[in-house]
Amino acid sequence: MAGLTSSDNETSREPFSVLASMLVVGACTAVFGCCTPYLAAAHAAEGVTEEPSILFQRTCAGCHAGGGNILQPNSTLFAKDLDRNGMANVENIFQITYSGKGRMPGYGEKCAPRGQCTFGPRLSDSDIRALAEFVRLQADQGWTK
Question: Model-level pTM greater than 0.70?
Fold first, then answer.
């Protein structure tokens, strides 16, 4: 809007700023948007309902943000603690996520006894498997961002 800017110089830059913004948005959509359907299709084929990193943020990060553990500091999701605590592979991580242990609730659809399981929504086996694979991968990479 030409009459609202403080100088003619700012007014002359306005079309360039709009064009630059449109190009940046277009480039991001082209680069990142093209991959999203393929990733979503791969996870859907496996029965995974949500991207594992998002699932982790929604389900686990309350206690395990960044691979830590706010309730039991010696039971983090870093490789050294997973290995020391018998959680060295994806199957071990799957089992504890499914059934829970100690203060960690289980998230499996058939988790029992009820007192050991989450009061929130349960996760499918496919989601728990994807989550376990995500946790092990992050542990192996040192929980980099």
Answer: no
Domain boundaries, the chain: 50-140
Q: Which residue, chain included where needed, has tokens 């949500």? A: 50
The CATH superfamily assigned to 50-140 is Cytochrome c-like domain (1.10.760.10)
Two tokens at 78?
């870093």
Instruction: Determine the pLDDT at residue 114.
Output: 83
Can you give the three-state secondary structure of the chain, one letter per residue? CHHHCCCHHHHHHHHHHHHHHHHHHHHHHHHHHCHHHHHHHHHHHCCCCCCHHHHHHHHCHHHHHHHCCCCCCCCCCCHHHHHHCCCCCHHHHHHHHHHEECCEEECECCCCCHHHECCCCCECHHHHHHHHHHHHHHHHCCCCC
Separation between Cα atoms, residue 51 and residue 131, nearest integer Å: 9
pLDDT per position as a tens digit, 78-132:
999 999 999 999 999 999 999 999 999 999 999 999 889 999 999 999 999 999 9
